[in-house]
Amino acid sequence: MQTKVPLLAFNENGIYCEAAQVYLDPWKPVDKAIITHGHADHSRWGHKSYITHHTNVPIIKHRLGDINVSGRDFNETFVINNVKFSLHPAGHIIGSSQVRVEHKGEVWVFTGDYKTEEDGISIPFEPIQCDTFITECTFGLPAFKWIPQQQVFDDINAWWHENQAEGKTSILFGYSLGKAQRLLKYLDTSIGKIYTHGAIENMTEVLRPLVEFPPTTLITKETKKEELLGNIVLAPPSAHGSTWIRKMVPYVTASASGWMTFRGARRRRAIDKGFVLSDHCDWEGLLSAIEATGAEKIISTHGYTDIFSKYLREKGYDARTEQTQYEGELNEMATGKEEATIA
Question: Name one GO molecular function term (predicted).
Fold first, then answer.
């Protein structure tokens, strides 16, 4: 008896739809790729053709250069070899999508990365009914429970104001695509000026036609540390400890990340202050998203996959794990390769 080929299968190149001969967020070069969003672990260089949401097109062109890419609208159906595909809001960052795949009455949804909290920048997550749901679980532990983002931004602005009163520069670390713009959107410019690292400034300029952001000032070799005193600097995590940042003394550092839930993470990274802010789901967000899909089969990727899948099985789901080369918010703690490509 011939084994049925799954609609989406995991192989050495990525997530493959054999019926359409197309990959979703492949990590090795392939002929045709559907891309969920612009982060480096999901949109890689070397594919012959790319399909993505139209707002993600300028993002991945900025990162990857001259590529063959076409954009689609949300909820627009496109057919490849009789397989129906459509993109739907993931709420992760600007331009992020889930991929719905339908063939012979079977529906799968691949989330890429996603979050259920509305951030006021990206189009909010949209639950899609499906049979099989492929979910990340970067923060798939009950310990991860996000507080409302407005409270986080109130705390960030209060921290900046306190540092200003002490005559210090505030340096806030956030991933250059997504997190940095989310921070920028809600910084209180009545406190002072917002300065940026080159990687963040360049990406923000790509996104300004899509979202209204406060004005920023790029830090250059000519920028004097006296100009920075009392103001705030947005920088990628890779800038921490670099010669670039040492010129800003006296300064206070902070990181905005889901990993700041754990105090040890802040200490290990020698960060003065941690703000818990993630572009991924917390525990409850993951569970509510899964429930909203109506899916019976759940495939967990990148994160606390084993623990999360075990919990889902106990709840009656047909749940399993798959290995991928996605990193989730681990990208925020990268060694600097990502920033180097877009600086």
Answer: ligase activity
